[in-house]
Write a structure and sequence with these properties.
285 residues; five-stranded mixed beta sheet; 19 strands; binds zinc ion; alpha+beta; Fumarylacetoacetate hydrolase, domain 2; twelve-stranded mixed beta sheet; globular
């Protein structure tokens, strides 16, 4: 099942996508106000049954999509998690995963502009698989970790490279407003039999700039869940952004930066295609 968060007539909603129609779930599931709430209540199977028996309330193209989880407790990103990306950056593989944070306020939905900051001309794409936690937990064992996954989505970890490199800490370049594209929807985990067998492709203006399969992750999804949940509890709706493969714009000759008017897509087989225009901050205001 595909689950969406959206806005229509100024009100936020969440629902299930059936073909190109949305079954609104909030009015049919009193007490549940968001996808994060649906995951926390462990009522995804009930939502599927409701959606299967319902007539859609909205056409997909008649609503404004929101990031699938607009309000996660945390967004943990993984750096340098594919060997071809590690080698293009001139770094070496570390024994433990490279983690950094992104804040929810930096996210945009499918179709919304990714915003090139006015202070930088080094705005880069990073196509990634996002893992959304369904059942929370602390000290989760890797062997049990996939049972804690609620679903998967596409993510574009838009990166402001000069700000990323101001110091050894990545965060400033990784959480500018309007740079984290997330969507278009959440595909529930039951539809992804094996998250290590997905093909991920990033396209800039239709040109393929990144292509990988997710079996090439250095630290796999179960190990990431075990590692992060050792630090603090993972909560329903938390987002793990699992790293980008080689081909980023910063490591090309000449560099390939995202510009006002560009269109960037991240497509993952079985998950979907996240598509965003790029807008310069000055043009947006
Ligand atoms: Zn990234």
């Amino acid at each position: 099942m595909k689950l969406v968060s959206y806005e229509t007539k100024g009100a936020a909603g969440f629902g299930a996508l059936i073909a190109d129609g949305i079954v609104a779930l909030a009015p049919r599931m009193p007490g549940i106000a968001s996808l994060r709430g649906l995951l926390a209540a462990d009522r995804v199977a009930e939502a599927a049954a409701i959606a299967a028996a319902a007539v859609p309330d909205h056409r997909l193209d008649a609503v404004t999509l929101l990031p699938p989880i607009p309000d996660p407790d945390k967004i943990i990103c993984v750096g340098l998690n594919y060997r071809d990306h590690v080698s293009e950056t001139g770094r070496t593989v570390t024994e433990k995963p490279v983690l950094f944070a992104r804040f929810a306020g930096s996210q945009v939905a499918h179709g919304q502009p990714m915003v090139k900051p006015a202070v930088s001309d080094e705005f880069d794409y990073e196509g990634e698989l996002a893992v959304v936690i369904g059942r929370g937990g602390r000290h989760i064992e890797a062997a049990d970790a996939l049972a804690h996954v609620g679903g998967y989505a596409c993510y574009n970890d838009g990166s402001v490279r000069d700000w990323q490199r101001h110091t050894s800490q990545f965060l400033p370049g990784k959480t500018f407003a309007g740079t984290g594209a997330f969507g278009p929807w959440l595909v529930t985990a039951d539809e992804i039999a094996d998250p290590t067998r997905l093909t991920l492709e990033t396209r800039l203006n239709g040109q393929v700039v990144q292509h990988t399969t997710t079996d090439l992750m250095i630290t796999d999804i179960p190990t990431l869940i075990a590692y992060v949940s050792t630090i603090l509890p993972l909560l329903p709706g938390d987002v793990l952004v699992t790293g980008t493969p080689g081909g980023v714009g910063a490591r090309r000759t000449p560099p390939l930066w995202m510009q006002d008017g560009d269109v960037v897509e991240v497509e993952i087989d079985g998950v979907g295609c996240l598509r965003n225009p790029v807008t310069a901050e000055a043009a947006a205001r």
